[in-house]
Amino acid sequence: TIVTRLADYRVPEFLIEKTQLTFELHEAHTDVSSQLTLVRNPQGSQAAHLELHGEQLELLTLAIDDRVLTSKDYRTTPQNLTIYNVPERFVLHCTTRIYPEKNTALEGLYRSSGMYCTQCEAEGFRKITYYLDRPDVMSEFETVIIADEGAFSTMLSNGNCVSDTVKDGKRIVHWHDPFKKPSYLFALVAGNLACLEDHFTTQSGRQVLLQIYTAAKDQDKCHFAMQSLKKAMRWDEQTYGREYDLDRFMIVAVDDFNMGAMENKGLNVFNTSCVLAHPASTTDAAFRRVEGVIGHEYFHNWSGNRVTCRDWFQLSLKEGLTVFRDSEFSADMNSRAVKRIEDANVIRSVQFVEDAGPMAHPVRPESYMEISNFYTVTIYEKGAEVVRMLANILGPTLYRQATDLYFSRFDGQAVTCDDFVQCMEEVSSKDLSQFRLWYSQAGTPHLQISDSYDAARQQYSLTIRQYTPATPGQTDKKALHIPFKIALYDNQAALPLVINGQNQGTETVLDICQDEQTIVFEQVTEPPIPSLLRGFSAPVKISYDYQLLQLQQLILLDNDGFCRWDAMQNLMRMVLSKTIDGANNHAEQAALIAVIKQLLTNHAMMDAALLACMLSLPNSPYLASLYEKADPVAISQARTQLQDQIAAELQTELLNCYQVLQDQTHGLTAPAMAARSLRNAALAYLLHIDEVRYRELAQQQFAQANNMTDQYAALCALVYAEHAEATAQEALAAFYQQWQHEALVVNMWFQVQATRPWGDVLQTVRKLLSHEAFDARNPNKLRAVIAAFASRNFAQFHDKSGQGYQFLAEQIADIDQRNPQMASRLLTPLTHWHQFTDAHAALMRAALESLTQRELSKDVYEVVSKSLH
Length: 869
Ligand code: HT7
Ligand code: ZN
Prior knowledge:
By secondary structure, the chain is of the alpha+beta class. Among the domains are: 12-192, Immunoglobulin-like (Sandwich); 446-542, Sandwich (Immunoglobulin-like); 742-869, Peptidase M1, alanyl aminopeptidase, C-terminal domain (Zincin-like fold, Alpha Horseshoe). Helix content is 41%, strand content 22%. The chain is built from 27 helices and 33 strands. The strands form nine sheets. The chain has an eight-stranded mixed β-sheet, with no helix packed on it. The protein has a five-stranded mixed β-sheet with strand order 17-18-19-21-20, covered by helices on one side. A four-stranded antiparallel β-sheet has the order 10-11-16-13, with no helix packed on it. The longest helix has 20 residues, at 336-355. The protein starts with a strand and ends with a helix. The relative contact order is 0.06. (3S)-3-amino-4-(1H-indol-3-yl)butanoic acid binds next to strand 20 and helix 2.
């Protein structure tokens, strides 16, 4: 298998000035005619031949200008078409035949629920026609779609509609995109869809037509997405000065989609799960996801489309920046603290795990076999953290100047991560050479923090030691530039900070750049409590030996939401690790119960959404990551035991909280969502108690809920409770009965069953795979059953029999035949074998090894072979 390397990057030999495409859609095949205006790139190496990408294509005709080519003029391989001795400038005419209805990989042109749609990123365009399918070849596109008259009400492509005519029983729709773009941003859609329309007036006064296309039955679920889109458009104008550039912005929702959505120029394609929303059938969390993904894809119009990536090693240039942008958008629209906690939690429990394992790679990788495998939490979420650090190092004014410079300097170009940092450097005059290591060095830095207090001098010293463990292929790690935000507390409030005689206010950012650094705070009159890594100011692990009392204080009075939550996570972790190690943890337990009691009793004094976050225990993958060799069974048991205990000891407070909040939970406002999240967190705890009245509470909420958040929370509470089997089965049956016609809700029904922490879930999961509503070709269903079981049911997936692992391997072998991208993504949990005790690790490796016996796609092969290494 071939490896692609960043070091081998060469500019393209040819450029494509213009791309004219004609799609003739037939029932059983599609013919694609292309007319490419090619010119030699003066910066190339003057190669005699033209080499185009193309896969799974039937070549029907090929001509240069007016000359039809014969077999001695060119050569095809499974990956390429090479045309010998081409002129400096010419028009290449080519016709290929493709079979969208047989395309189960959902890459290129495929059919989903009767409609045609495309997914070209990263390298899917080459499954449509022969092309220079690389992001640094940018071209103007004209697209003609031809189908039987009456076959499709909707026939879309990028840009503006030039004409829509009927001739000889055929409908012919002609589109033109005036902006140059790489092939990965091409899109085509044809189907019978309904359309919700609205308008947006840009800051310069232009009217933009906004359209959301879905199946007719889903039209009533598009209003929230439309509002979110308008908010995103305004936000990007106000925050980044970015205005939309075409007269029309279209979104199409499809059922079968490998990811969340795709930012094709002017024609975003969305997984239905990221666009449809209605209070009756959508949870608050799903609403927020819709808003976030709508924002994300819209923001790509500048960070990705107008300025794109030179090559796929620079993927984080667009993804890291765009995730940072969507995350700030969500923070501005909702609770900033909660958004930061959610993001930090993903980094710590998912990205740190990736970064510590065999699949670890830098934000800018150096090589890959299959680029689809690199749409990872490292590229996306760690990449976003890197941009966030830059934004914080520069401060708001300089950061905005730097992004203005970036967008204007590189508009219409395909550039690198380094070009982006260069803009930050130029505008701020800061030396970011050490900071650049965040792009090239994989692995998570660990900060070991110790302190001392000198009463006589009234000085408090913090010593921070950083070190990054080796990752595959990178053993020699250098010290990184880590912006480390800190405050010091006494038992009332944050203290004024004085460093080198300089007053810093009550919060400061330390530039940690060396292997070891000591910072001295002056005029400190008593030993303070350090509030560390405020706002999760860098994606690093920290260890500092807190006393219980210090954590309690931070939980109660820190004014940084992340730090409050983190202090609680720390305290919970102390209880859990002692349980896991079989050590006495009475003091820790007592401290934890006392502080939760205090929070619950005074819950009206704080943000309910933040409190809800603070009530959830550290998740199992995060706990596992704290061990050299984790015992997943012990981790799961310790978590359940602590939940039981919190519930038992605080049932009065939990019940009170549940009851008091009842009348604050109406509607879609932020306070109502916050109240629902806290109330449902309380309910989940109460169901740990084996009492009829709590089951009835959940049953009642389930039956009476007028919104999906409450209905689903009640269902989960019942299904997860170990002593509510009969009630849970009734509720499951009723839920299916009520929602069987809403695919996205049926997926939630699959998911709750696949994530139940006890009982023979594997058997349930196998049954679900043959349920009438299951469809192994639909990625959302695979995620709802298989991914839910393997990556969100820690207790069951890691059952000591190893059957969970074998099951996943079997499923992957099967899915890989149809959809390699999905198969490869579902494999992730097995790649974490290194985290676990020898017995578990051996069983996980055995499951991976069983896959090596099969014929594998490049996608799965890369992950299996690297993770076994
Ligand atoms: N930029 C989009 C990437 C994407 C994708 C990549 C590989 C295979 C299928 C895919 N669908 C969408 C998503 C985004 O980050 O906006
Ligand atoms: Zn993206």
